[in-house]
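Batch manifest, entry 17 of 40.
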Amino acid sequence: MRGGVLAALASVSALPLFAETPSLGLPLDCTIGQTCFIEDYVDVKPGPGQGDYACGLKSRDGHTGTDFALLDHAAMEHGVDVLAAAPGVVDATRDGMPDTPYDPSDADLLKGRECGNAVRIKHAGGYQTLYCHLKHGSVSVARGDPISLGEPLGKVGMSGQSNYPHVHVTVLKDSQTIDPFSPAGGTECGADVKGLWQTALPYARTGLFTAGFSNAVPEFADVKSGKARVTDSARQAPLVLYGHLFYPQTGDTLSFRAMGPNGMIFEHFARVKQTRAQMFRAYGKKAPAGGWPTGLYRGYITLARDDGTILAVRHADVTVR
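Output type: structure tokens
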């Protein structure tokens, strides 16, 4: 999140006496690799481009937090608690923003509120934690409330500048963003480090750049450029779901799952046969007799290790007209 978001939330001064350096717990009620995963880390690369603390690709240019994501939208609808990562006092809250997918045309409308529904907690030693994109109507704490480690703050949502259910957690020290995996700066190049966390959180450099729908198995160049993606499709056209992977390993598994107005239209599993720097895979179906029913179709691609540990999920939507 950008500095304007933080400035939009007022501050409190009173604090109970806690440890000067926070020891952070998991900020949502899930199990990493099973019911949630870390989607993006703080961008530690100055200037254009991005890089995470482990010298990997799991960040976005200028990204200032750690994104803990759910496996699908159904999990958000069911309800998953966002938890206080450390004890402190509620500094500010915001609620009332809808859980609607972000579109770049909304940028001006969301200016200063990119964080969506949010809670900010003040800790001793000049530390703060900010929790963004909470579910509409779910914020359960108020400014000035004392907060204990693991206390529920709200539910995971996708309000503000978000198009997938996750909580974006920013850690600040003296109003400056820091990376909780590498609070002193620098990179660890692949190590599962403890940083400010109570226990080291797992890191894997393997992930998904994107997922999309197309009307045929696309060319790799079109996948990488974005040309392959369709967001509107005819009733008689095939529907093909594709995923663009980085650093997949031999034995990793991909699941393709697509749902339409009448339920599941296909589910498919594939295994990575050879470790690569990049690759894409696709799966789809021809339209049934009479064509696809009109409406919204949503596809999920899940990337996992051969032991079932979930590394990444990407989704795509297409409207059949």
